[in-house]
Amino acid sequence: MTSYLGNRLVEAGVSIVQPPGGHAIYIDARAFLPHIPPTQFPGSSLAAELYIEGGVRSFEMGTLVFGKRDQDGIEQPARMDLLRMAIPRRVYTQSHIEQVIETVVSVWRRRDQVQGLELIYQAPSLRHFTARLRRVEKRVACG
C-alpha cells in the first residue's frame, strides 16, 4: 500500500523521497510549497492543511523538529523539510489510502494558497511537542 500511495502522488506531480515503500511516504514540503520559506515551517503548514482538508494526520520532520533559534533568536532552518505519512501494516484499507490521495492532490492543486506559519511559543527543548504556531498574515502590496 505504501508504494501504491507514493506512486499515485508522484503521478499527480508531488515530490516524495524515492523510492516509495516501507512504512511511510515522505513528501518534500519545500518542493510542495516553494513559496513558503523554511523559517515559516512548510512541513508544519502542509501537515495542518492536510488535516483541515481531509483529516489526514502526518508529521513534520524539518525545521520545527530539527531547526532551532540561535542566541539572537533567529531561526536556523533544518537541512530539509519533509512530511512523514506513516502507514502501519494491516490498519488501513484501500479506501483509506484513496482518501489520503484525494486529500493530498486537492491541497496540491491549490498549494499556492497555503500560508506559512510562525512560531509563537516553544519549549526550551523538544519544541515540536508543545509548540504553538499561527498562520503568517499575507502582506498586501500598496502602490
Radius of gyration: 16 Å
What integer is the average pLDDT? 89
SS elements, strand count? 7
What percent of the residues sit in helical stretches (DSSP H or I)? 25-40%
Fold-level CATH name = Aspartate Aminotransferase, domain 1
Distance between the termini: 51 Å
Structural write-up:
With 143 residues, this protein is of the alpha+beta class. It has a single domain, classed as Aspartate Aminotransferase, domain 1 (Alpha-Beta Complex), CATH 3.90.1150. It is 36% helix and 18% strand. It is built from six helices and seven strands, in the order αβααβαβββαβαβ. The chain has helices at 2-12, 29-32, 42-54, 63-66, 94-109, 127-130; strands at residues 24-28, 59-61, 68-69, 75-76, 82-86, 117-121, 132-135. The strands form three sheets. Strands 1-5-2 form a three-stranded antiparallel sheet. Helix 1 (2-12) packs parallel to helix 5 (94-109). The longest helix is centred in the C-terminal third of the chain and has 16 residues, at 94-109. The protein is globular and about 50 Å long. The mean pLDDT is 89.
Brief overview:
This protein has 143 residues and is of the alpha+beta class. It has helices at 2-12, 29-32, 42-54, 63-66, 94-109, 127-130, and strands spanning 24-28, 59-61, 68-69, 75-76, 82-86, 117-121, 132-135.
Q: How do the helices and strands line up, and which of them pair or pack?
A:
Layout (H helix, E strand, L loop, with lengths): L1 H11 L11 E5 H4 L9 H13 L4 E3 L1 H4 L1 E2 L5 E2 L5 E5 L7 H16 L7 E5 L5 H4 L1 E4 L8
Helix pairs in contact: 1-5, 3-5
